[in-house]
Amino acid sequence: MTTGGRLVDLVRDRIDEFLDARSPILAAVSDDATTMGRFSRDLLRNGKRYRARFCYWGWQSVQGVGMPADWFGDEGRRDLPAVIGAASALELFHAAALVHDDLIDASDTRRGQPSAHRRFEAEHRDRRFVGDAARFGTSAGILLGDLLLVWSDELFAESLGQLSDAANARAARIEFNRMRTDVTAGQYLDVVAEAAWPHVDPRDEVDAALNVITWKSAKYSIEAPLVIGGTLGGASLAQMAALREFGLPLGIAFQLRDDLLGVFGDSEVTGKPAGDDLIEGKRTVLIALARRELPLSARRTVDELLGDPELDGEQVEALQRTIRESGAVEQTEAMITDHVDRALEALDGAPLTADAREALSRLAESISVRSS
Fold first, then answer.
1. Which of 37, 65, 120, 238 has the lowest CB atom count within 10 Å?
2. What is the C-alpha separation between 113 and 138, in angstroms, rounded?
3. Which domain holds residue 254?
4. How many domains is the chain built from?
5. Neighbours of 120 (CB within 10 A)
6. Residue 142 backbone dihedrals phi, psi, to 5 degrees
7. What is the rounded CA–CA span in Å between residue 103 and residue 119?
8. In this structure, are residues 79 and 100 in contact, taking their beta carbons and an 8 Å threshold?
9. Nearest to 7, CA basis, from 73, 83, 62
10. Tens digits of per-residue pLDDT, 92-124?
């Protein structure tokens, strides 16, 4: 099995082990509370584990320790369980962010399944509860996201306790805390962008949208996991700088690809409805680029339709066609290529292990062309 495949399996097993340990706690509270554990497990069962992978390779980039068949028993690799635990904690944090993001965006689906708050809404109806099902789903979804945040911190703290170097553990905790503040503030910027866009100078729209994705997604998706992994391994200042110089532009490319998939992605592959970002009214870089190029009449049409929850298939297709004709898709693709190139250039001569540079280069390439 490849290191990448083995890593994904180890992260999955660590998450399952953690959730198994929390199941009796929920059951002791009430049988009703076990629903939260079941929904958590379902949400965490799948995923590409990018954050876990970047955390691991951030650590490997400064440690250069391989992954043997019997890695738990190898004294020279005693920090691997801590790294796998920290990587798994990042996946729990990501799950929490997804639950809250779906609530904010009123998304119906996630990874081809009903989003968490919609599942709670269905639970309300199936069990014939009284009151408003949608309100119940929203309330329960908020609590599930909060629980996953709590659990991510618990698992991260447990993992730091296994680390052999206390100074490295403290440094990783600082980066983890900073990541949580950054992504929460970035999410708020996204909420503001959807409400305040008429007051933004058109000349500043692209930069404003780039600022949103930098703080909401790019940093916590790639840069922060890399840096957290690096701190677990005791990275030097030069190594930390190299990881950041690689991670941030790649994180921006990652989100720009997401923006394209949110408008043009195949629903069978993405697990989200076609044109979902159009229905949700996302003011992405793609939309900012399109508005900049469109004539006034077409721009007004985009503004009128974007974010309308009643958009039908024909209207979604019309918006997609308008965006394509503006040239915004080609511009976004060029931005993705430019940011991936910048990331790869940062790896050249970086004071990181050769194996890690090769693995990070492969990850960068896969991110730039992914379809989900």
1. 238
2. 17
3. 3-369
4. 1
5. 24
6. -60, -45
7. 12
8. no
9. 83
10. 999 999 999 999 999 998 887 899 999 999 999
